[in-house]
Design goal:
With 168 residues, the protein is α+β, with helices and mostly antiparallel strands. It is 25% helix and 39% strand. It contains four helices and nine strands; from the N terminus they run E-H-E-E-E-E-H-E-E-H-E-H-E.
């Protein structure tokens, strides 16, 4: 996965979490207001805070993004108690150069013809805002934070929480 430099420490934290978790549940909205979520593999977070994915040209994602471009990406790393929620605007991109940049053979089961597969398109999500919750790195530190949080009744002892708006 390609993680490019960000403009602030908070955006760097978002990029770090995306890089470590990689997989997101993408939530889109249907015509009747219903919400649909599906797993997606993040391929890149670029320097403008845009997240990049491959998808199929004739998928429900395409229909829903055409009607309602606002989406949510939910990332979770249960073993370390790290969570990230990204709200943004999605668009379909058909840029051969960008596809070549992001292509990986791991996508072949979904797109057997590779970069020549007619179903292959990119989904770009321009991050508008993100919220994250990140626990300390080791199990010992997480346990210490839990005990400290219980004793002090301060949930901030359990880890780092932040909200960030993307300036782009």
């Amino acid at each position: 996965m390609d993680i490019q430099g960000q403009e602030s420490r908070a955006l760097d934290k978002v990029a770090e979490l995306v890089g470590e978790i990689k997989f997101a549940m993408l939530t889109t909205q249907g015509d009747q207001g219903e919400l649909h979520s599906r797993p997606m593999t993040t391929l890149q977070i670029d320097s403008d805070g845009c997240l990049w994915f491959f998808t199929a040209a004739h998928s429900h994602i395409m229909d829903e993004v055409d009607g309602h471009a606002r989406v949510n990406l939910a990332y979770a790393r249960i073993d370390k108690q790290d969570y990230l929620s990204v709200t943004g605007t999605a668009q379909i991109v058909r840029d051969r150069g960008k596809m070549q940049e992001l292509w990986t053979p791991w996508l072949t089961p979904w797109f057997p013809e590779g970069l020549d597969d007619p179903e292959l398109v990119l989904l770009k999500v321009r991050m508008e805002e993100a919220d994250y919750w990140a626990a300390p790195g080791s199990a010992v530190k997480r346990l210490y934070g839990l005990v400290k949080g219980i004793l002090t009744r301060n949930p901030n002892a359990l880890g780092e929480h932040g909200s960030v708006r993307n300036p782009h």
